[in-house]
């Protein structure tokens, strides 16, 4: 929960100070696929990218640098996607923990 709170505080601080993330112009090869995706698809890809980053790291999942899949989103959309990605990764971890607990119980019962 601490990484989530820290990320939310950082995002709010950025918003309150008027700072915004800078989105460098994507390369020509990156722009074509994004243009064909719906906003919902771009958001889903961003959520998945944040969840994957969270799964790869131990400890706090960094808010920046922004994953490439998230660059088309506005700052507020990215914050929403970031938080949903963190929740998605946390749920996957809880599910895996429950799977292991259930497996251990089955092994103990045998």
Please, could you describe this protein's structure?
There is one protein chain. With 110 residues, the chain is mainly α. The protein is 71% helix and 0% strand. It contains four helices and no strands. It has helices spanning 2-17, 28-36, 39-56, 75-109. The longest helix is centred in the last third of the chain and has 35 residues, at 75-109. Mean pLDDT is 77; it is low at 12-32.
Give a quick precis of the structure:
This protein has about 110 residues and is an all-alpha fold. Helices cover about 70% and strands about 0% of the residues.
* Most strands sheet: none
What is the overall shape? Answer: elongated
Number of DSSP helices?
4
Strand content range: under 5%
Series of H and E elements: HHHH
End-to-end separation in angstroms reads 36 Å
Rg, alpha carbons: 17 Å
Percent of residues in helical segments?
over 70%
Multimer state: single chain
Name the structural class. Answer: mainly alpha
Question: How many strand units?
Answer: 0
Q: Would you tell me the overall average pLDDT?
A: 77
Low-confidence stretches: 12-32
Element layout with pairings:
Layout lengths: L1 H16 L10 H9 L2 H18 L18 H35 L1
Helix pairs in contact: 3-4
List keywords for this structure.
single chain; 110 residues; mainly alpha
């Amino acid at each position: 929960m601490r990484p989530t709170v820290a990320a939310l505080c950082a995002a709010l601080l950025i918003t309150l100070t008027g700072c915004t993330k800078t989105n460098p112009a994507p390369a020509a090869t990156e722009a074509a696929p994004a243009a064909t995706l719906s906003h919902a698809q771009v958001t889903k890809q961003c959520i998945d990218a944040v969840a994957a980053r969270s799964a790869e790291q131990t400890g706090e999942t960094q808010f920046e640098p922004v994953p490439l899949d998230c660059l088309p989103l506005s700052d507020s959309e990215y914050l929403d996607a970031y938080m949903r990605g963190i929740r998605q990764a946390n749920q996957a971890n809880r599910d895996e923990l429950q799977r292991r607990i259930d497996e251990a119980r089955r092994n103990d019962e045998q």
